[in-house]
Fold each of these.
Amino acid sequence: MVNRLYEPTSGHIRIDGTDILELPAPQLRRGIGYVIQQTGLFPHMRIADNIAVVPRLLGWDKKRIHARVDRLLDVVGLPPDIYRRRYPAQLSGGEQQRVGLARALAAEPTMMLMDEPFGALDAITRSRLQEELLQIHRRFGQTVLFVTHDIEEAVRLADKIVVMRQGQVVQYDTALKIVTQPADPFVAELVGTDDVLRRLSLLAVGAAMEALGRTIPDGQPVVKRSASMRTALSILLEKQTDRLTVVDEDARPIGEITMGTVQAVSAITDVPGERPASLRAPGGQPAQKD
Amino acid sequence: MGNINLSYLFEHPRRVFDLSVEHLTLALTVLAVALVLALPLGAIATRFHRLTLPILAILGAIYTIPSLAFLAALIPTPLGLGRDNALVVFVAYAQIFLVRNIVAGLRGVDPAMLEAARGIGMTSWQVFRQVRWPLALPVIMAGVRTALVTTISITSIAATVAAGGLGELLFTGLTRPPRIGLPMIVAGTVAITTLAVFTDILLRLLERQTAAAKAIRAAR
């Protein structure tokens, strides 16, 4: 509905304050990078032409399109000299989805709409593409509206999550809040209330850490921000320590995780409409409830 | 019988050539007129699902009308004898091949593909021009090929209503004593078959040049 493939029957959708109904639909859509399940690449066009579709609709000149296609193929990790002239059917599912991503990014959209883009991929490819999407997002920084049925994917990728059930918004919150303070039994079940380890493995370290507030002592064990809290916990236990330094992809320290952080996210606040589940921490001791 | 006598072909090459040109010209004219009709008809049959079956059924029924009867039936009309009469009959016959494949080609394009095209910002015309039409083209061209080859063979009977073509050799040959007539019939048959076979090959090569066909080959 955001790109008006379906028209709203009531209410308004605004992007940067502008009602989407104010623009002609094709013009609106050209400004929104669109990635769909099964890629939707055009089988009769070569990879370069597929990526160039929207820039051509916008009337970019050839040189600019050529340079843009090369750059994007590099960004998604497909060497242009090998892939430019291939047809979609010559690529694997993962490669096709990378091209789909490149096509969506082609016209430098301010916003991306991704409709279950990785749903049809195997687990390993999906995980790798998720990681790449995060990196691309850090680089270009557009808003991404990402639709998924996979709560792990949602928690891993999102800054903010909207949980929907039968067309109703159930909860709109950060990943951390969704996992630690589910708004109702539905969300609680989705994130696995009564399974601490599952919830820990959902949450990325980056979402739960305390941002760098003071200098972190050297020699502390480190954990990547994209790792899960479960990984963080096992490092904490393994190294017999209660503090970890969180680092970004370039190994720069950006925050800290303590045993307290793990306990805080393990605990769950009362779910409205449900008796609190009894929780057990990994060590077999009762988890601390707040 | 038994002797394939090519003597007429060698003694009157000019006449066979002229009749071949006349034959091909008539067939191509039929195809051109038929396409002008079939494209909108095919578009309507594709767009309106309730009309698809009736349209194809009517065109199929037209194709079953015996050709000599069809030609004869038009003689009392203002079309009378000659080229226009043959043109109308053959255009009517060609419709089924063209419209059927236009519908099959356009319908055969994955709807998800069309939604993707719309979703990234193509107008309806751009979706048709850049996605739907090129993807349907191999199937549509196969229809054009069948229509043209069929028309070339059936144009042989155009001579019965004085519309010319290689049929002249066949029907004149039938009225002559076998010694003179048979070589004429052989020459006509050989020429018609050659035209049909080469047209078929040529159009097949053309089909292979479409973007969709290239993409399919590349994937093998």
Amino acid sequence: MSSTIIFLNILLPILYSCTFSIYTYDFWKGGKRFTNSKRVFLFLTLLLHLVYLLYRTVFFNHPPITNVFEIFTILAFSISFSYFILELVTDIRGTGPFIIIISIIFQIISSLFIKETPIVKDILRSNLLGIHVFSALVGYSGITVSAVYGFLYLTLYKDIKLNKFGLIFNRLPNLEVLETLSYYSAVIGFILLTCAIIIGIIWLPKAFPKIGFTDPKLIGTFTVWILYGIGILSKTFGKWRGKKVVFFSIIGFVIAILSTMFTNFLSTSFHSFY
Amino acid sequence: MNILAISINHRTAPIELREALHLSSDEIKSLIHHAKEELFSEGLIISTCNRTELYGIPKDQKLDVLDIQNFIFNFKNNNDVKPENFQTFASTEAIRHLFRLISGIDSLLIGDNQIYHQVKEGFQTSEEMQFAGVLMKRIFDAATKMGKRAISETEISEGAVTVSYAAVQLIEKIFSNLSKKTALIIGAGESGELAAKHLKDRGIGRLVITNRTLERAERIARALDSETIFFDTFKEKLHEFDIILSATSSDNLILTKDDIKKAMKNRNYSSMVLMDISIPRDIDPAAREIDYVFYHDIDSLNIIVEQNLSKRKFEVPRVEKIINEEIDAFISWYNSLEVAPTIKDLRDHFESIRADEVGKNKNRFSSEDQEKVEIITKRIINKILHQPTVELKKINELGTSPEETAVKVSILRDIFGINDKHEEQKE
């Protein structure tokens, strides 16, 4: 393996940890000392991560989607990238630690276990598969970010109800903002997941003529998709709000995680290419 | 520096005594008039609900703080206040006290920035009455700079420290845009009015006030450009309000859990904030059990107030540090007003202008002439500065008061811009 790849593979968890530390320090202290520098640090981390992903693609001559640990590093990138965009658009800078920590977990696992795939199946070189995987991963990132904001909403909701005016109360944005952030992240996640499913439906019969629609991955993805669909429609038409929508988002995220783990580590699915 | 100050405040005297010496704006003007005649060449008088303070530069070097206390006793014709009800300050300590005052760390509510505006008003009155000369103006500039630094460089004024403002802070943790929200204020007493003002200041979309005596509600509504609703019928429209703030003196509950339950059902369980800042309470505390109802009473709001006050107390040493820096800067300016350093500064100033101009035009002269130009220009400078130097020395020898000398020297320094240069060099 290239020494650059090895170096970046070690460097990335360190960079994510440093970014996380700066965001956490700022959250803890509540000062304005690192308000801008923490954003610059996150940007540099993401930039290096992008370089790493592109370099891997060029060096191994295939996109980094050939094993679960390559998928994990893309997930780490897309979760923090989604947060970065959200921070730029909303200028809400206090929620970083809760999202960047998820990137750290995915990146550490990836950096520890990632290996070069010796033989890459032809199917993994398909462009349609590339778009399918990319939209699915960004969709899952949206769902993850939505779940984190949902969790923060519930924590703040409980704290305000119980007169706990601690760090969470002082540092987090207000409940309406958290609900909106969770909702928009879920909408973006849902749209991209829908794209991934549509591409999958077009591409699947061509790639696997004998595919069965009882595949655990397909069932898991559809369940998540339906849950988010119900939640988003109910919120959009004003029937549900607050805790109810947020619960749906968190349940959807848990099912998505369980389904991914089950498909990749426990069951035999046509989605397990490696 | 001979500046004296006396202060009767919340730490030195109970409210009855503070009230006895409280000065209205007309009284302040009248007192300044007398003070100018009898005591001070320049000065400042501040009177708020928590304190009355007099600062001044004595005309007579023998004047002491007891004379100032007697002066105000006579003015207010009061015999109840005793000298021990005063804090007294002289020289740098008087300035330090003023700096502590303007930064809010001497206030009953630490960090209260209302005092900043009150001190500013005091200085404006002094200026209007020609009671603020060179020294007081300089003290005022230093004090306002100090006050601004305390607010911008520390968190001494951060967070709500009154119950009604804490209620608004809490509301802003639930709703993101108050301009789209509707609030109902029950009760038109002092607390209700204050909360209504805070909500209006934060841009509440619609503000409705109700009170048993409608006239009082209408008075506040007129002042705040808001609406009123009859007390007997407001419960029918409870569901229209996102925020309900109750501050009445009623002995019984005004809103029961069932009233809130009904309202929540009618508003499809859209979040509702209930703030009960009255004692005894107006809203049934059991209402907090309803989903999306955020019920808070005076105890929970006091938690926020206490937290913010502790945070402000934590900031006091940082403010003290800024005060020390600003006092050092002020003393260094004041010391520069002595005669000997001023003569030196004046000579240096002229010499630097001379050298600069000669340097710029050097090439226009032959090497033999350059030497002559140096000698001639130096002679001109010496002649120009001869008379001012003699006059400055005279001021020193005639034994005028240090304050009078400082004023004269300060004018001279201002005319030639020596102060600015001094400060530029320091920076």
